[in-house]
Amino acid sequence: MKIIIPMAGKGSRLHPHTLKIPKPFIPIAGKTILKRLLESLSKLIKIFSINEIVFIIGKNNNEYFNIEKNLINLSNDIGINPIIYYQKNPLGTADALLKAKNSLVGPIIIIFSDTLFYNKNFENELNRKYEYDNIIWTKKINNPNLFGVVKCNSLGLITHFIEKPNNYISNLAIIGIYYFKNGLLLKKELESILYKDEQGEYQLTSVLENMRKKGTNFFSKEVNEWMDFGCKKTVISSNSKILSIEYSKKNNKLIHKKSIIKNSLIINPCYIDENTIIKDSIIGPYVSIGKFTKINNSNIKESIIFDNTKINFAILRNSIIGNYCSYIEKEKEINLGDYSKL
User: How far apart are CA 68 and CA 25, in angstroms?
Assistant: First the structure.
């Protein structure tokens, strides 16, 4: 078995934060999205003796970020040497996987790099892989028109794959985690794809529907928790989920002992990294703050602050502030009479 991680997208919905670094390397509570993903797979890698991890990356024009070096380091941390393929033109998820066609052999797991999940039955479901043939992991959501979805029968057998349906068909979203018993079948279908979507891209959902129509069985398995990092809104909500989960596990150990907090209220769950200084402020809930950041006289909730940033006199919510930023709201005097609104 091998793991394939497509990560060739431009991350344009997360600009300006993805102008300098690829989306999978955005830090969430002290760890990048990709590092968190690989750590979540470490148990799986040991159980199934996986010795091959495949990355599909896009054209990297950022001279300040060596994506290949970072992928090698992260893979070596979990004891695996990576194989890297390149998608020079962003033509969709199916086209990206086709670039790795030489690795589409035998049983494979495909996990997209902008998704994290918690599923206590994940390894057990894969242990029963011969019962299921192919597995698509899903999650019930409130906005299925934004995702590819599946429709199933009472046994969990998928009867339809639909990409971003205009009308309600199902609320079971495809979350970007797949198991294929035979990668060659996927490779064969990828090589025959003819139809692009409205954005001119080849989508994996269409490939899966074609395979289903030709007799390939897919089963849906629902995860316990799913964190999506496709856009700013989902990054912030996923940060909140991760903080809640880790706070319950680590018993208030998300605040680094080398951080300095003076005359401030921290409303947990929050992550505060080392050498960060917070004065005269209210922080939280659901705030992640990086290293060497200074925050004064501010009220921040449901936000992500990167490293080496300075924030003064700010009221922030649902915000992402990058590295080496300086944000200062003007200090002002106000006199308001009765029944005034500001």
Answer: 12
For residue 67, CA distances in Å to 50, 61, 92, 300 come to 22, 10, 20, 32
Q: What is the pLDDT of residues 91-141, one digit of tens each?
A: 888 999 999 999 999 999 999 998 898 887 787 777 765 566 899 999 998
Residue matched to tokens 């750590």: 39
CATH of 236-328, one of 3.40.50.720, 3.30.110.10, 3.30.70.2190, 2.160.10.10: 2.160.10.10
Residues forming CATH 2.160.10.10 domain(s) in the chain? 236-328
pLDDT tens column, 199-235: 667 889 889 999 999 999 999 999 988 998 988 898 9
Long-range contacts of 266-274 (CB under 8 A, 24+ apart): 267/301, 269/243, 269/244, 270/243, 271/29, 271/30, 271/243, 271/246, 273/30, 273/307
Residues 6 or more apart whose Cβ sits within 8 Å of residue 148: 161, 162, 163, 164, 173, 174, 203, 204, 205
Q: What is the pTM (predicted TM-score) of this model?
A: 0.87
Q: What are the residues whose beta carbons fall under 8 Å from the beta carbon of 241, sequence distance 6 or more?
A: 225, 227
Contacts of 183 (CB under 8 A, 6+ apart): 103, 104, 105, 106, 107, 108
